Amino acid sequence: MSLLQVDRLNKSYAPDKRVLNEVSFAIESGECLGLVGESGCGKSTLARCLLRIESTDSGSIVLDGHSIEKMNDHQLYPHRRNMQIVFQNPSAALNPKLKIRDSLLDPYRQYRQELRLQHFQPSSEQHLIKQLLEAVELSDTLADRYPHELSGGQRQRVTIARAISIEPQLVVLDEPTASLDVISQGAVLHLLTRLRTELNLSYLFISHDLAAVHQMSQRIMVMKDGQLVDQFPQTALFAEERHAYTRELISIF
Ligand SMILES: Nc1ncnc2c1ncn2[C@@H]1O[C@H](COP(=O)(O)OP(=O)(O)OP(=O)(O)O)[C@@H](O)[C@H]1O
């Protein structure tokens, strides 16, 4: 059984225009699935629908054997723990009034009663902060700072640490390096790959950057105007049978 199975998902914001059109795919446990497509094709909408931040019109979303597409907030609560998201802009994702330690601990404090952590084994909140910052290669002296006292790359590492703090099975990475300079981009991609292996995470890695998707993913999907036009193993990116649109993306990367 796949960790995530999505079947014929449809979503419109206006009656005459589908933003997601019959989207079907699966993500296996421990896998990074890349999603590439030009701006406005529907990638972030798909991410928001999967995480049930946004409602869907039809289709099914099965996470770890549970159909979540129609669950109410109460039913969704235990499943939300199992899927976390890292957004493009870490500044918007962190509350500017909270110290890093409190932002980091937010999901842990919310779910601590039902958590059975495998990787992080904290003896105290302070210990967890240390483990989390270590996992994303940051000094624990940053815990008492506010977000504006960190660099963009450090802030994104904090949002990654927060996402993995409750050991979800699935992490949706929505353009996680788009706001970073080239050197920080490479370092964060490297970090994400290491964390996936160490914590056996599954990623949906969303980007308009085909080179980054190619580097990170075992399989790749290509989206155009709300439809998945191509899905293939990473090694088959340059194969002859690629969709014309995929070839167009290759020609500009
Ligand atoms: N809340 C909304 N209300 C109405 N239309 C929306 C809403 N959110 C997105 N859209 C529209 O849906 C389409 C897909 O947007 P989406 O943000 O999912 O694309 P994207 O592929 O993630 O783009 P980008 O790479 O620029 O982030 C766009 O035409 C966008 O204008």
Automatic annotation (TrEMBL):
Gene3D superfamilies: P-loop containing nucleotide triphosphate hydrolases (3.40.50.300). GO terms for molecular function: ATP binding; ATP hydrolysis activity. One of its GO terms (biological process) is transmembrane transport. Keywords: ATP-binding, Nucleotide-binding, Transport. The keyword Transport applies. The keyword Glycosyltransferase does not apply. Residues 4-250 form the ABC transporter domain. This is Dipeptide/oligopeptide/nickel ABC transporter ATP-binding protein. It comes from Paenibacillus bovis.
